[in-house]
Amino acid sequence: MPPRRDLPPRGQSYRIDELDVPHKRAIARALRADYYTVVLGEKETEILERIEERSLPIPGGEVPIGFGRLKVTVHIREYQKKRLFGGEAIATHPLEVPPLTYETTGLWIEIPRAFPRSSRRDGLHFMGGSTPPSTR
Description:
Blueprint: E1 13-20, E2 25-31, E3 35-58, E4 61-83, E5 89-94, E6 100-109, H1 115-121
Antiparallel strand pairs: 1-2, 3-4, 4-5, 4-6
């Protein structure tokens, strides 16, 4: 697959000087920076179509899993500047942009309601997988 010409080369930082939301266009310029940015916000996912469903065996029972069409809506509230080396937060700035909605396919796992509580009881971190918080 040939490289996309509409994306900047990897390793180069860019600053957005102008954002034209109605026309879905951003004006950017190359920049040497000792920071990077991350967006902060929320994401909502809606299952549009269930194509395939199964159960995944786990200790003490089964967990339903599925594959299908999804609608994802991203609400970006702010962005954060972080140091390039170390990732320390430098500053946080509000950002007013409309929600971004797109359709995709995806895999989901239906987590039992008691699972987060039982994970904590077992010394595990629910969102962090099987790594106990003390080893992070």
